[in-house]
Amino acid sequence: MSADLHTAQDALDTATHLQARLAARAAHHDRTGIFAQENIDDLRRAGLLSLRISTPGRPTPFTLGVVQDIVGRIAQGDASTALAMVNHYMVRAAIAHHEFGSGDVARWMEGEQHDQLVNILLAEPDLGSASRGGLPGTVASRTAGGWVLDGRKAYVTGIPGLSWLLVRARTDEDPARVGTFMVPAMADGIHVIENWDHIGMRASNSHEVTFTQVALAPDAALGLHAPDAPPAGGNILMLWNTGLLGSLYNGIATSALAWFGEFLKNRVPSNLGAPLSTLPAMRDAVGGFAITLHMNAMLLRLYATDVTAARPLPELNAHAAVIKSRVVDAAADFTAALLGLAGNAGLSAHNPLERAHRDALCGRIHAPHGELLRRVAGQQALS
Q1: Which of 20, 98, 212, 382 is surrounded by the most beta carbons within 10 Å?
Q2: CB of 275 within 8 A of CB of 268?
Q3: Please, how many CA atoms are within 13 Å of residue 114, restricted to the half-sphere of its CB?
Q4: Residues 6 or more apart from 214 whose CB is under 8 A from it?
Q5: Quick one: 8-117 is in which CATH superfamily?
Q6: CATH 2.40.50.100 assigned to 121-225
Q7: How far apart are CA 123 and CA 222, in angstroms?
Q8: Where are the transmembrane segments (predicted)?
Q9: Model pTM above 0.85
């Protein structure tokens, strides 16, 4: 049974309470690559998977800004678990805003499925990231009883703990349509290829998944449309994705700096006779890191406020490019700089800094990639 969180402060306090518990498990799950199901169970019992996302028609305390803060706190405990939360809540937000169909889907998801973990499957081994366009290779074929799904998806984060998969596919019609199909994670014909073995986010279990003649009901298809004519207003998924990833990677950087600060206060070299934290050079360096984190927090708050206020999409996309390049992608440079100052202690697997750096490196692989963002910004600046 999950708790019922009514206020933003309740949710933030709950996330803070769970942070240390998740952190205590993080090294084990990183080393083994085992999915931290107990973390998901803790989040479910605490009510952190069931938040009712705020929409213009139904305001609640749980705006993008609040969910960003929750994800950031969980990320300071375990980044892989926080990544599963990012995917869960960007989907929940899109559903709440009717991005995948009618209000019936939103009511069903917030009703009997309120605490079930979900993710959307966009990338494919052959197609790559959906952000670069192209028709998906995964195909939904019409049958007398509904649909049959065949294909393969990559980077299915959290697959051991997922209850529902939203699968991007094209139909077998002529001309083909593209849309999202709601698929039970335990349906017959689904096979997990356990090939996630990356340098970071190791416990996210972002494996590949194949679909072979997976039978679906007629209403499993959500929002089918022509490939070159997506429905208007369908942007909440990616806007929330950017904001939540920003908080995730800023949370990683925050935890890295917290460890480094304690290291400086406790490390007393014999030739110095005082903690490293007394050195002006170290204080200057830590001050620079702290200012960066504060700047990131300011950017994330501004971004969340503008998304909630439904600012014009070109403006929001420009803001999203800043979050991706200056918060998400930059977390790897942030943790690398800390490693350079911490020396051997930072590289030791006994300490969390090296894991934070490996997890931060994964920020650069999230779509849209930095190269694509720069090219789009350049085209707009030169037009």
Answers
A1: 98
A2: yes
A3: 17
A4: 148, 149, 150, 183, 187, 188, 189, 190
A5: Acyl-CoA dehydrogenase/oxidase, N-terminal domain (1.10.540.10)
A6: no
A7: 18
A8: none
A9: yes
